[in-house]
Recover the amino acids of this structure.
């Protein structure tokens, strides 16, 4: 077939295409999309106007779609930031109606979880926390009928954390029991498939027992949590567990294990990018001083980058003064950084470090003296006289100082032990010599000389003795015989 024939046939043949009349629908989608992106551009500069634009997106829908879901989601976040908590709750209730049909299950679960995380981070006042509690309750009611166990667990864990932040320990205990049951098998053992959730629940319960000072239950759960091998928990969760473990060991004055736990907690927080790593690093420095260790905690590879961090500078100066026994520098750092004691845990344990520093300073200061005033020591170290007396009393009872305190005159007399020690050493020496003499000369043979008679007898009956010769008048057969009736005694050369 030639090209001309082909073109001729094409002209004769007509193709009728059927177009659906959906121009209005397409225009509607375009309008919705334009309105959504226009609202996004207004978020930073005109948040109130942006809220109205976002809320206008669902109104343009003929039926619920992901555009309405996105618009409501953005509007709720802005309302929460603007403090319009009632409106945020109202529109969140509307948002939850989209999760059953308008958007996919995975997308809705991810979006709702991110929304709750956003609300949690911004809840810095009582009204915001009430709003957050309402969000959690509505989420649980909505997803209870959808059988979405993952979101149910995540939301309940967040709700338990909210109760913990509010110090509502009764509600926390009740919610934790419910969560533990959801993560267990029928025989009561932990379900390995829910190990990650179990670790989060353990972390919350450990935090509760740490805050309520219930060390018995805290220790039981802490050891149980460390034995979980069926999950790879988020580093932040392990940071929380290790931090609480360190505090537990501190309350037992187990400084070594506390230092180990605080280091692991810091490492996990650092990996998770949590700001709590700075506070835990301060706890690590504190335990180093309580251990009376000469090892600088900032020498490790993990902590070295924070040596010059301004947030940790006060603790760095404190441990430096402690390791150099510089009491004046130590006291100066404490007095200039009052915010250091704003943390109740540091304030509770720093007194022990200060006491150790002052005790060492007192011992060093009184070393050259045999008599001194308590007021003199207090003035030199800039501490109250009553504390100086307490420290000296402890040193005397502990036999680190041999002295007496005259409370009436406020003086201390140190006994001079130099002559006493010298006499004691001489007595020990004399006793040792006496014991040696007794062992050698009284109880044993020692260096006794043999008697003379024994020497003579031995030599008489030893022919050809080295000390002389027996001569009896001649040699041969007559050897040993002299003249008749005579005996010649040996001569010694």
């Amino acid at each position: 077939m030639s090209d001309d024939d082909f073109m001729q046939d094409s002209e004769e043949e007509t193709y009728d295409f059927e177009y659906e009349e959906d121009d209005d629908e397409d225009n509607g989608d375009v309008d919705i999309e334009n309105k959504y992106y226009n609202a996004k551009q207004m978020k930073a500069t005109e948040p109130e106007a942006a809220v109205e634009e976002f809320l206008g997106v669902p109104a343009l829908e003929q039926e619920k779609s992901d555009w309405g879901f996105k618009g409501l989601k953005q509007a709720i976040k802005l309302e929460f930031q603007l403090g319009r908590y009632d409106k945020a709750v109202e529109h969140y209730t509307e948002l939850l109606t989209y999760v059953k049909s308008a958007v996919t299950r995975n997308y809705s679960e991810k979006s709702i979880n991110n929304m709750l995380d956003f609300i949690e981070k911004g809840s810095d006042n009582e009204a915001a926390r009430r709003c957050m509690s309402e969000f959690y309750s509505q989420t649980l009611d909505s997803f209870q009928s959808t059988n979405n166990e993952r979101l149910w667990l995540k939301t309940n864990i967040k709700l338990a954390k909210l109760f913990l932040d509010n110090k509502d320990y009764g509600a926390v205990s009740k919610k934790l029991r419910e969560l533990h049951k959801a993560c267990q098998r029928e025989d009561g053992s932990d379900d390995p498939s829910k190990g990650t959730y179990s670790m989060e629940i353990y972390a919350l319960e450990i935090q509760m027992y740490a805050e309520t000072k219930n060390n018995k239950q805290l220790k039981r759960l802490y050891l149980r949590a460390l034995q979980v091998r069926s999950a790879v928990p988020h580093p932040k969760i392990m940071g929380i567990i290790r931090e609480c473990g360190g505090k537990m060991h501190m309350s037992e004055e187990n400084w070594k294990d506390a230092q180990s736990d605080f280091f692991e907690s810091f490492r996990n927080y650092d990996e998770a990018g949590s700001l709590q790593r700075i506070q835990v690093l301060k706890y690590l420095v504190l335990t180093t001083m309580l251990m009376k260790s000469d090892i600088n905690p900032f020498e490790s590879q993990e902590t070295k980058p924070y040596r010059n961090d301004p947030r940790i500078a006060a603790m760095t100066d404190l441990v430096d003064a402690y390791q150099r026994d510089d009491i004046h520098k130590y006291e100066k750092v404490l007095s200039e950084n009052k915010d250091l004691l704003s943390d109740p845990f540091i304030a509770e344990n720093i007194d022990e470090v200060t006491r150790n520093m002052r005790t060492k300073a007192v011992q060093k200061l009184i070393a050259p003296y045999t008599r001194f005033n308590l007021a003199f020591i207090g003035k030199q170290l800039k501490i109250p006289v009553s504390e100086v007396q307490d420290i000296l009393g402890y040193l005397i009872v502990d036999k680190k100082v041999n002295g007496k305190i005259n409370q009436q005159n406020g003086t201390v007399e140190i006994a001079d032990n130099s002559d006493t020690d010298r006499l004691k050493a001489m007595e020990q020496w004399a006793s040792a010599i006496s014991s040696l003499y007794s062992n050698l000369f009284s109880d044993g043979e020692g260096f006794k000389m043999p008697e003379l008679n024994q020497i003579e007898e031995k030599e008489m009956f030893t022919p050809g003795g080295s000390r002389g010769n027996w001569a009896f008048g001649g040699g041969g057969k007559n050897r040993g015989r002299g003249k008749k009736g005579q005996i010649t005694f040996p001569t010694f050369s």
Summary: DSSP finds 21 helices and five strands in the chain. Residues 418-442 form the longest helix (25 residues). The mean pLDDT is 80.
